[in-house]
Amino acid sequence: MRNTMKSLFLVAFMLLVPGSFSLWAADLPAPSATAEAPLPAINQSDLQALQQRLDALKQQISSANNFNQLEGPQDRVQAFMLDVDRLTTSLLPQQAQLAVQLGVLGEAPDVEAAAEQADIVAQRAALTEQKNKVDGTLKSLAALKQSAADLITQIAGIRRTLLESELTLRTLSVLNPDFWAPLVNPSGSDAQRFNYFSDQIRKTWATVWAPGEYFFTLVLMLIAWLVWTLGRRLAERGLTWVCIHRMPEGRLRRSALAFASALATIVTTALALHLLFYALTRQAPLTPMLTTFSEEFEKVVYACVLITGLSRALLATEHPSWRLPAIADEVALALKPYPRILSCTLLVLVTLVQVSNATAMSSKIVLAGRGVVAMVVMAIIVTMLLRVGKVRKALAATHDPQTSSTFAGVIFTVASISMVVSTVALLTGYVSLARFITYELVWAYIVLAGFYLLIQVVKDGCEFAFSPRYSSGKALEHLFGIGDRRLDQIAILISGISRAVLLLCAVITLFVGGIGTTLGQLTSNILAILGGAGLRKLNIVPAHLLNAVLALLIGIWLIRALRRWLDNEFLPKTDMDPGMCASLSTLFSNIGYALVILLTLSSLGVQWTNLAWIVSALSVGIGFGLQEIVKNFVSGLILLTERPVKVGDLISISGVEGDIRRINVRATEIQLSDRSIVIVPNSQLISQNLRNVTLGGSAQGVASLELMFPLDIDPEEVKELLLSTYGENENILDKPAPFVRFSHLSPDGITLTVTGYVGSPRIVGVTKSDLLFEVLKRLGAAGIALAKPASSA
Asked: Given this model, what pLDDT does residue 194 score?
């Protein structure tokens, strides 16, 4: 075992130490001179096939005549770009290998020096030829990808134009019988297209239901049905059991239960749909028309599943205690049947509309189908709003606080206004606008419900992960040496940032998506907006985020550990005073945190040459609102380096006198005699007149008493009494010696002032108190009284 460990250590050492691998490889036998680099895996015919595939997509996009017909081609263009990326990635190692081999052979000499160089010349020529082929292939792939990217931009422009034209297109009103005539009596071309579509379905079905195949088709379809029904229930019960028995009690368990319910519905439906697709296409691929229809049908199914799954998860009518939103039980029960009714209706009606789109039927058929969808969906939503409004009104009469939600009122109002506008649009002939409003209302529900669920899961997950009551929080406390309060702050900060990001994604999703939008489209659209030109100029790569987080956490941990070492071990063993030690520790922390921030930005891949706009924005912010903060920050650095005051000094500034307890970057903490703390901005300590009593370490305090005696006393006797009292006090210094001064003579009496010095200004108050007690005692023993004010005579 020990020899094995030594061998592993030796191998790791040779691989990690620069130059060791080359020394070790020098002893190995040289490879055969006839060995050739691997040939490129992509030939000219593959590139031609890719070009033909792209040309077919362009032709399909150019022949589209409505907005919905461009959704499928957009997905296929994105899949084409992914295929090109995979091929490019497969060629990059070959390109690097050929470049390394050519670098080993070196440049071709002007004149061949010896005959034995002939093999090297041949090998160099072969490698050069192979590298040129790989370079040419990569350039062709790059050109194809750029062409596809341009095509995506063109699709977006075409879709925008078609959407605007459709929304502003005015046709016959739904009250006009001629509007429904194409559905009752379709034209010959529309009937022919529908019959052609039906024939393709019959041929596909005959292929999978042929003798010897129908048994497997029946089994696969039965399995798909079982997965969709029984499998969903089993998956939901299994995830529920995991959440109840493996999740801690509290909000995390409740949000996890809701998320598990939605996840079980979506995953089992996706699995059943893929099984059904495999059952119908295992013998022969679908025709282009059926392929387009199947892609659109899959999107509609997922949209309907999201409606039902999210509604079941959020309403939780079977387990009201698991419900996340503040919805009354009566309202939840009133809403329960409508998501399923809406999803089933959309599945049937939108599928029929997709048939007309896939077969390129006339615009009259398409508009009539949109009118049917808009009217039926509006009828369902209006019925739901009326019923929910009736229930909310009944609950409001009972003064139930759950019915007074502002957000619920806003949703109810927006939905009602949308239905009114859709009704007016249908009656006035703007059928596409009415259908668009109903679709957007359904899409808004899917987005808001989905992101609400995600936000709740993230929030509760952060509270659990950073809670000191659980193992994860205890591990973080032990690893980073932080307390419960700081752990709560970190949890709130991370939760807030995560929710802000999710809310931003939700807003973007509302405007860039719609019913029928795939997850890939949403992801690419969100990344295109969030990772736009600004982030590309900063060179921020998502893969670098993990490195940046690790650099930030490790850097903060190192700074805290090094500061503890300075405060507890190194600095106490030096000859520096405590104030200097505290200043050095604070300065080290500030510099360390600045370096950690720079390291984190560097780990993100931020190029400093691209930060000019950030500096400009900061300069504007400093000019308008941050000048005081910057001034205090600079003043704090001056205090820590020049040290006109330090921790432990007794200072007096603007009527405030006390001891400096801490010098921060922005402000200084001064402790008064009553133990209260005054926060003074650092700029005041630099710009104003400041009295530092203890600067230099030799400051002395002055204990001075002013007393008035009657005119008939013996001044010399009183003088000797005062001096003896001062001389016998242990706090009064011998040098300078105490003295008595004749301050004032008036008809009221003689005023004498006795002054003595003490070792520190901090004991002046205590010393004066002791002296007064002793002076009054001795004056009373000597029979000497103090003068009384004239007003009291």
From this structure: 87
